[in-house]
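I'd like us to work through together how a protein chain folds, taking it slowly. To get us started, please write out a protein record for me. Go ahead whenever you are ready, and we will take it from there:
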Amino acid sequence: MGDSRIINSTLVHLIKDGKYLMLHRIKKEGDYNKDKWIGVGGKFEPRESPEECARRETLEETGLTIGKMDYRGIVTFVYQDITEYMQLFTSEDFSGEMKDCDEGNLEWVDISEVCNLPIWEGDKIFFKLMEDDAPFFSVKLVYDDDGNLIDHTENVY
């Protein structure tokens, strides 16, 4: 396997008026999410809980402060030498003034349209689970080196 990397991160989908706040990743060099649309969030810092990471990353990337949030599930994302464990949250309770993000362009997108954007193929699986209001879930998404989804498993608890 060579040098594999394990990443712990959060992924947050803010919800307003039937829309998700999505980030079009076009500004960061060497970004494996380049040109994709994803939620906000990022890597854990030492000693951080998932909730602390989700709140900090959302504030850093959007300028918005989250109040109540829902812990929806965990996504195991396997791509090239990366295994990333993404803690997935949604929130309709946030405040503040939205700012520009240095990692891409923030845009409110109709929930019904999100899966038509250039997103990771497997994201459609957890978007559907969230749309169906599934209880806590764990989804494993395995991609080939070209970013094509080649395997996935889902468990709902």
Notes: The mean pLDDT is 94. The CA atoms of residues 3 and 145 lie 15 Å apart. The chain has one domain: 5-156. The helical segments are 50-62, 123-131.
